[in-house]
Amino acid sequence: MKLLQPYKALTLTAALSLSAFAYSETSQRIVGGTETGEAYPWMVSMVFPGTQAANERKWCGASLIAENWVLTAAHCVVLSGGLISPSSRNVVIGAYDLSESNDVQDKEYKIAEIIPHPQYGVGGQYFNDIALIKLNKPVTDAQPVKLVTPEIFEAINAQAEASSTGDGPQLTVMGWGDAYSGMSWTDNSKITKLQSVDVALWSHDQCESAYGTGRIGPAFCAGFPEGKKDSCQGDSGGPILSSESGWVQLGIVSWGYGCAGAGKPGVYSKIADLRSFIEEYVDLSEEDTDTDTDTDTDTDTDTDTDTDTDTDTDTDTDTDTDTDTDTDTDTDTDTDTGTDSNGNGDSGDKEKGDGSSSGGSAGIILLSSLLLALRRRQAIV
Length: 381
Known about the structure:
Blueprint: E1 3-4, H1 12-15, E2 30-31, E3 34-35, E4 43-47, E5 58-66, E6 69-72, E7 78-79, E8 82-83, E9 90-93, H2 101-104, E10 108-116, E11 131-135, E12 146-147, H3 150-161, E13 170-175, H4 185-188, E14 195-201, H5 204-211, E15 219-223, E16 230-231, E17 239-242, E18 248-255, E19 266-270, H6 271-279, H7 285-289, E20 294-300, E21 306-312, E22 333-335, E23 350-352, E24 371-372
Parallel strand pairs: 12-18
Antiparallel strand pairs: 1-24, 2-16, 3-14, 4-5, 4-9, 5-6, 6-11, 7-8, 9-10, 10-11, 13-14, 13-17, 14-15, 15-19, 17-18, 18-19, 20-21, 22-23
């Protein structure tokens, strides 16, 4: 177990009451990664509402999975005080540099509803670490990411099962989280551009060897035996993907011991095992059939009759209909108790419901007690 000392010297004017942010001794904004150099239309940053640049309002990562729906980790939306209010967070969709306010303002959406998995935390501390966010209006100018099916995951996982630890298929994690362990909020806010890092998929047995039998649940591990590359605080809720045949999201940044430590890979909620929860609310049938099946059948009978019949059966039917009930009145006070989630969100202070800072004098809150935590993700006790 790792003890950590959360960083809590935050002012409201400088950090928008980001007292909810806690930092472990481990790190990762994406640790050992690089700037992506481009935006991805389905990449999401969950932020506090406010007038500051989005890089100063970061909360968690997430991904766009349908025109009205965003996918994230349950620990990003369920705090010690319960489910956060939809009006206490916004989402920025498809941005690359969060400091580019002119670009971000056109990509920032309000939240209509938040739906965590009903069995979150049942069976294990971070079991079923998944949540859906319904937007107050559809996103019409961004392509959602494809979600892995159980069949595709098993095909990828078979390679990990046949590989030694750290030699499995390469996956990519993205986010705007910490770049090293114990990173201060001031330094984290300077991470404005989307980061990514490639990590190797571990087999289930390799994952349990790292964390213990029965501790993983519907999740999987990715990283390297020597550490050095990983996701970290602030990356929680973001996607881990395969790019082998186009971008496909396999999991959600959930937890781990520290960030990029030797022998302690990141743990990611396994979408293949949790699709039934998503499908209760989101129609994924279009996504599963949107593979442009071209059934050209050219029948040339080499007599005088040429019966070319080109049948193209593209099916792109979007049946998502959403009724949005956006509320702008926020009376939420989210209480956070210091089990460090990678959503930078567990420190023990009240978070302001609207996330905006008020000028003037704001007290500096200091927490000096040592807390047990996981990097971004959360603490396993």
